[in-house]
Amino acid sequence: MSQHGIHHVTAIAGPASRNVGFYTRTLGLRLVKRTVNFDDPGTWHLYYGDEAGAPGTILTFFPWEHAAPGRLGVGETQETVFRVPEGAIGYWTHRFLEKGVAFDPIDKRFGETVLAFRDPDGMRLALVAVPGAEAEPGWSAGEVPAEHAIRGFHSVSLLLEEAAPTGAVLTDVLGFAQGATEGSVTRFQVPGTAMGGIVDIRPVGGFLKPRPGAGTVHHVAFRAADDAEEAAMAQKLRENHRIATTEQKDRNYFRSIYFREPGHVLFEIATDQPGFAVDEAPAALGQALKLPDFLEGHRSRIEGLLPSLGEPA
Ligand code: ZN
Predict the structure, then answer these.
(1) Is the pLDDT of residue 1 over 70?
(2) Distance from the CA of 218 to the center of ligand 1, in angstroms?
(3) CA distance 104 to 118
(4) 50 lies in some domain
């Protein structure tokens, strides 16, 4: 059966070693792939996720050593939200205090407990306490115990001029259903999907335009089971919404098409197949620089260009 929801989120970061330290040590995610930006091979593309890098758990970055900070604006992803077990919020509050991570007072949204925080580039992140998540497996490399570990994505929120046109794409093409509204925020949810199954839309007509840069989300990718489902989604976008997608691009770990949704956020549709174990053993994920075949011949030059990652957890 097809699984819908968020496949991955890709953001822009400052220095790569700081990014690796924060996401693997402070947040305890697994670095599941170290590769390069296929469109800019002198730049890292780092993937973090659960043990396997399952769809719905993957946060990826293009780190640039001297990236200027971005500014949040309308037509952009506002916040990227992870799931944690219900009993873990206290642990994380302590950890953020101890590690000097900037966070907001604990909040309630749609009846759930939320701890919003920022990464070292100012990227807006949050943890949501989810009942039952403690029964799901949690990855641990040591610092963050498995019982408190992040369990994939909860949601992203989008800052848009208006909710309806984007909502129509989410519901007609990407497998979401319109849910509750709280204040100005409307929740869209994939029925029966816990991991990465929520997109919240916050309409803010007339807000500032975004400035891309460190700490901003580059795009959000949604799941398609395989090439056939992805092609069917592209056809629906074209026929029902007059939205053209790019041709399919082979990203080695998934195959992707891209489009601007009506609110101007860059969306991607990515296949669940083949996944991160396609070019290294599951136990060794993220330990070596992996390159697609078309870049393998340039390996030594690429290795010379890439800044040090430091030591991941
Ligand atoms: Zn992507």
Answers:
(1) no
(2) 8
(3) 9
(4) yes
